[in-house]
Amino acid sequence: MYRKVIYIVLCVVLSNTxxxxxxxxxxxxxxxxxxxxxxxxxxxxxxxxxRSFCEILPESSADLNLxxxxxxxxxxxxxxxxxxxxxxxxxxxxxxxxxxxxxxDYNDATWGLLNYFSCYADITDYILSTGNGTYTFSDLDxxxxxxxxxxxxxxxxxxxxxxxxxxYEDTNxxxxxINLFQxxxxxxxxxxxLIISLDNVNVLDNTGAKIGFLAWEGDAILxxxxxxxxxxxxxxxxxxxxxxxxxxxTNSFTNSSxxxxxxxxxxxxxxxxxxxxxxxxxKLTTGDFDEFGILRADLIIINNIITVLNxxxxxxxxxxxxxxxxxxxxxxxxxYTVYNVNCTEVLPALTPIAFYANNELVAQSETLNTIPIxxxxxxxxxxxxxxSISDNFILxxxxxxxxxxxGIVIELNxxxxxxxxxxxxxxxxxxxxxxPLLACDxxxxxxxxxxxxxxxxxxxxxxxDVVFYESYDDLLNQNNAISIPEMYDNRSNPxxxxxxxxxxxxxxxxIFDLTVxxxxxxxxxxxxxxxxxxxxWFNIQxxxxxxENHKLLIYNRFGTLIFEGNNNLKWYGRTNRGINNLDKLVxxxxxxxxxxxxxxNYKTWTGWVYVNY
Length: 613
What we know:
Blueprint: E1 3-7, E2 18-19, E3 21-31, E4 33-41, E5 59-64, E6 71-82, E7 88-91, E8 94-97, E9 100-108, E10 112-122, H1 124-130, E11 133-138, H2 143-148, H3 151-154, E12 160-169, E13 176-187, E14 193-198, E15 203-216, E16 227-230, E17 233-234, E18 262-268, E19 280-285, E20 288-289, E21 295-296, E22 300-311, E23 316-325, E24 331-340, E25 352-357, E26 360-366, E27 375-384, E28 392-399, E29 418-424, E30 431-433, E31 437-440, E32 448-449, E33 466-469, H4 472-477, E34 488-489, E35 495-502, E36 507-517, E37 526-527, E38 551-555, E39 561-565, E40 589-596, E41 605-611
Parallel strand pairs: 1-14, 30-36, 31-36, 37-41
Antiparallel strand pairs: 2-9, 3-13, 4-12, 5-11, 6-10, 6-12, 7-8, 7-11, 9-10, 13-22, 14-19, 15-18, 15-22, 16-17, 16-19, 20-21, 23-24, 24-27, 25-26, 25-28, 28-29, 32-34, 33-35, 35-36, 38-39, 38-40, 40-41
């Protein structure tokens, strides 16, 4: 016996004679909800009783009668048949195209590969506008399939049918969790057992608990070990659905046994689950051996499963309230709120929260407090986006996520834990180069600059938006601004200065150099070294501590060198050269000088100076 085990996502093939398309959780509804289903077969008889037909009916009808106090939340149309599919049909003369089509294959030993299909379409808006009444389904065309492969009719698996599922709200109901699973899978003589485990439940009250199925190709006459078990308990609904013939062409909603080669059934499972249960196991079987030891089995195609359970669970959702992007920064400040609404239980403290950028985990947090029913908690977090992620990315906030895409809290709705936001970081603006500012050296390669001279070369709205900095790091971090840019002494030569100009989105960057040059000195023509405190030395302005390597030579009228000075030795009218006149004041008269600036930009200066007392 072949056996399959399915956990939420269902499709494991253990035989090369059967293929399936996964059945998975399609939609989940939480609230004062329930469901009903209508539909009909397109088979005129059960095809295992009468081989006289090999076609389906052109149309069939069913009535919708929803009580006035019930509000339609969602409606889905399903149709199925033999072959690979017909995705366009008509309902009440309105054409619908399938949102998706599922297929399943069966390789019969005699007739080879046989295909079967199921389609669904979301028709919520149509049902809301149409309301109660008769719905006629038509234009399902599988004639080419049946005509091209006689195996369908000879194997008696020619069928067609349809159903509408309606999820509705009724304020008189308890808060229920409705899980709708859909896809397409098959059990038969090759794969005789199917196990489905529903793990995201927490049963508060088993009153009204039920499970429903939409299946195709079941035959009432083929009661070969067909069973349906919930948590290991055989369930049935006699006389409509017997324990040994679960799929027998019946419709539990109309109490009909002429839903040929289809089953639209719902079972009460109040006695099959217990308060506190966190999972429900569904087991379907077909096949047994006759008195001659020959295996007999019905071919059954499972299209969807729906459960209605009263559950006491929280429902964690998260919303990004606001975010702040800083220019030239990869940090994002996020304000977010975790909610626990549409639920029946508190959300525990320390529920994890994960933050992803383009699916890469970039930050983690957790709730601080227990969040009550219909309550919320607001927090902030600063997230640094790694350099490996582009400036344009999708930021995802995921509550009940431990950073590995796993949750730790069982919730009413496991599909609404994430929220997404397109993000675009503001890149670091380019630096614009300005012309340098030039000033004369006043002492040891320093000068006083008016940095605001550069304002005429940049764009700005207000002078308050303009700030000068000595380094680019200071500019980025807005630290150590130059306090008095109108009177600024440079610290090196040359020195770069940066301007930050705030704008609406970011800021503009500018850079310029401060350059100090040696300007020509002013050489006086007279001085009076009489110690009166005024003009007592040969004060060549713009020379000392500027032309730091200069040499000054003084000659008398006879051409004799009487003084040699440098940056640290000024001429106060006394001699320091010669044998007999050292450190003596020179007499009144004219003296000649030779000044070597030792600056490649200037030649030697020569001239005269008059000394008087």
